[in-house]
Protein: Malate dehydrogenase
Organism: Mesonia algae
Amino acid sequence: MKITVVGAGAVGASCAEYIAIKNFASEVVLLDIKEDYAEGKAMDLMQTASLNGFDTKITGSTNDYSKTAGSDIAVITSGIPRKPGMTREELIGINAGIVKEVSSNIIKHSPDVTIIVVSNPMDTMTYLVHKTTDLPKNRIIGMGGALDSARFKYRLAEALEAPISDVDGMVIGGHSDKGMVPLTRLATRNSVLVSEFISEDRLSQVSEDTKVGGATLTKMLGTSAWYAPGAAVSGLVQAIACDQKKIFPCSTLLDGEYGLNDLCIGVPVVLGKGGIEKIVEIKLDEAEMNKLKESAEGVKKTNGLLEL
Ligand SMILES: NC(=O)c1ccc[n+]([C@@H]2O[C@H](COP(=O)([O-])OP(=O)(O)OC[C@H]3O[C@@H](n4cnc5c(N)ncnc54)[C@H](O)[C@@H]3O)[C@@H](O)[C@H]2O)c1
């Protein structure tokens, strides 16, 4: 299993590290446009192998895509992150050009690849890859919901004063401060609906804190977060590489599902060796469906800024 991670910055390196530590891939190639940067990150990470006990080989490349040839999965994290006060949508001008060029270079050397898009605005960047490449739709996946759901579970556990492993919950919709739809009605603590334990007001606070999860960290760190994003990507990569058939909310091209068409937005999907093997249509109530539709309108507005 060969995995390429384009962009050896904060998220790319974190993602490569988690993939290596989980020890399911034979090779990870980190690629960056900055001279020697990916090679340096790869060397540093390889020097943790004996300490962390993994056998995955991590190599670096300065913009030489021949080194990525034959990759099964490629992750795109190249592009600029937001600074405090910025929205993800404001990154479109620079990141669209980068994502378009990077995806075309990856496919040239790995025609059977499955691409996971991370660069923001992620739903629009995922749509861009659909529009500008010939890859089948099951092999283009946007990562946002897996991270947003992890942040949701963190906030739920905090409110419930429970261990995170005791809670479950999912965030669907667009990967943006306004567009996320945390499914509070369906969230559980060890199979019991969380509404049995906390008030509606506290649950809406959890929902609001989840939606601004990224912005909160960007303000604290001066740039966007990387540990949880890297871990979330590694979860998707592992589900595909190990054919786990796990459900994650991912950004995928919709063709009538949830009454939506011609956009990529976060909905639950089954991930396995075929990439997105199934889009899962859960029964939403009217309020949840309205929020998803509103979120879709926001994503479409950002898609409209693309020069296709
Ligand atoms: N989808 C999500 O949930 C999520 C979460 C966190 C961050 N992000 C996004 O991921 C992206 C990366 O964030 P980061 O914090 O790692 O940024 P970063 O600046 O630390 O790293 C980005 C890297 O991309 C490289 N790069 C730029 N242009 C390139 C090109 N043409 N080819 C190869 N490499 C190139 C840069 O040299 C840099 O090393 C941002 O767009 C950020 O908004 C998305």
Observations:
- The pocket of nicotinamide-adenine-dinucleotide is lined by residues 6-12, 32-34, 37, 77-82, 91, 95, 98, 101-102, 118-120, 122, 143-144, 147, 175, 223-224, 226, 229 (CB under 6 Å).
- The mean pLDDT is 97.
